[in-house]
Inverse folding.
């Protein structure tokens, strides 16, 4: 049996998580989800050999807050063979976010 695995990584945009948005940009989770979805679709357009493969999202920490938003956008818009997502040690309760600041 031959198993094929591909791992693609990318980082969230400015203003999401602990990053700071320039010039007061109000960049939040919904905008990041839409931008990341656009990136995924653009990647699959450029590399169509990956289109039919199973697609999972995996994140940790602050990704526990914004990754489900991206999953929702993927489910609503389609375009990938989305199978699910997982988060490790996720930040899901926003008041805890401020303890480290």
């Amino acid at each position: 049996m031959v198993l094929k695995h591909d791992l693609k990584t990318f980082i969230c945009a400015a203003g999401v998580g602990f990053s700071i948005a320039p010039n007061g940009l109000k960049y939040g989770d919904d905008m990041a989800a839409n931008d990341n979805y656009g990136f995924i679709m653009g990647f699959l357009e450029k590399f169509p050999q990956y289109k039919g493969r199973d697609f999972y999202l995996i994140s940790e920490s602050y990704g526990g807050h914004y990754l489900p938003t991206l999953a929702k956008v993927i489910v609503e818009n389609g375009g990938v063979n989305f199978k699910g997502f997982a988060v490790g040690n996720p930040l899901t309760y926003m008041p805890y976010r401020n303890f480290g600041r």
About this structure: Strands lie at 54-60, 81-88. DSSP finds two helices and two strands in the chain. Helices lie at 29-46, 63-77. The chain has a mean pLDDT of 79.
